[in-house]
Amino acid sequence: MGILDFLSKQFVDVIDWVEEPGDLGIRYPMRDREIQNGGQLTVREGQVAFFYNEGQIADVFKAGQHTLNTANLPLLTALQNWDKGFKSPFKADVYFFSLREQAGLKWGTAQPITVRDKEFGPLRVRAFGSYSFRLDDVAVFAAKLMGTTERLRVSDIEGQLRGVIATAIATALGGGEIAFLDMAANQQALSEKLKGAVDAAFKQWGLACPSFFVESVSLPEEVQAYLDKASSMRVVGDLDRYAKFQAADAIEAAASNPGGLGGIGASAAAGMAIGQQMMGAMSGGGAAAPGEDAFAQIEKLHKLMTIGALSEAEFEAKKAELLSRIR
């Protein structure tokens, strides 16, 4: 190096980093890595600075303004065998890391994931939501993700994080004792369960997951059809009551059917079969369900008598029985 090169060379005496949204870490750019002894280091809130010597972490600085000398670079001083009278510039790699929470990130299952549910067996499920992360163990993060990269941003690792999220979800749901549908009905409980699994997975890279939300869950069509049917049955009630409601609807439709004698005959035949089923359901062990209105039953029986499904004597006998229950 010539004298002109030496004179033009400037040793770094001010080190700071103004991060941009999405930044996770940078290797501070310095020519020949030479820092002026007594230089100023500024670490802003939400940042941390690491000094490295030949790939080994030496000193760590948290938020504040620091003067760089042998007094506050004890590990680097020991590694380079500086004496107490050290005055000249020194070499080190300086990395800044952002400790801020990276929020509003989206996750989703690009392909359905298979979970083994205790109620339905194997299920293929899609799910979507949002999450956040932040650096928790900077040394682990620096070693496993940052490495010697000049700059690392959220976008550089998002794909990797979404992959581990999908794996964590499959593991958490596949081994759970709570039925998936029970958790899916309560998205807050599902979010909390999955957050724990994702947080544990993130720790391998020195990351933490402060928030994790499930915003939608898509179940297989056949499972959804089963749920819809089950919901309908719960609304209608038990099977006896279901048969009675079905009978009343069919009778009312038949009574208003202008399809001629053939239609009347077919309706009457259907009514006879339904009437016999209904009479059997409301007699003996198939008594009316608690809380069912006796007058509503009488009205349905009257419709059966009108189309010839019941005789007048049968109608009167059953009506008397129903009225006796409410006296």
Helix share, percent: 40-55%
The order of strands across the largest sheet is: 5-4-8-2-12
Instruction: Please give the count of helices.
Output: 11
Given helix and strand content, the structural type is alpha+beta
Kindly state the mean pLDDT as a whole number?
Answer: 78
Poorly predicted sequence stretches spanning 5 or more consecutive residues: 1-9, 260-264, 284-291
Report on the structure:
There is one protein chain. The protein contains eleven helices and 14 strands. With 327 residues, the protein is an alpha+beta fold. A five-stranded antiparallel beta sheet has the order 5-4-8-2-12. Strands 9, 10, 11, 13 and 14 form a five-stranded antiparallel beta sheet that branches. The protein is rod-shaped, with a radius of gyration of 38 Å. The termini are far apart.
Looking at this protein, list some descriptive labels.
5-stranded antiparallel sheet; 44% helix
Summarize the structure.
The chain is of the alpha+beta class. The protein has 11 helices and 14 strands.
Secondary structure topology:
Blueprint: H1 3-8, E1 12-15, E2 23-27, E3 34-43, E4 47-53, E5 56-61, E6 64-67, H2 74-79, E7 90-91, E8 93-98, E9 102-108, E10 113-117, E11 121-135, H3 138-146, E12 151-153, H4 154-174, H5 180-184, H6 187-202, E13 207-208, E14 212-218, H7 221-236, H8 239-255, H9 260-281, H10 294-306, H11 312-325
Parallel strand pairs: 1-3
Antiparallel strand pairs: 2-8, 2-12, 3-6, 3-7, 4-5, 4-8, 9-11, 10-11, 11-13, 11-14
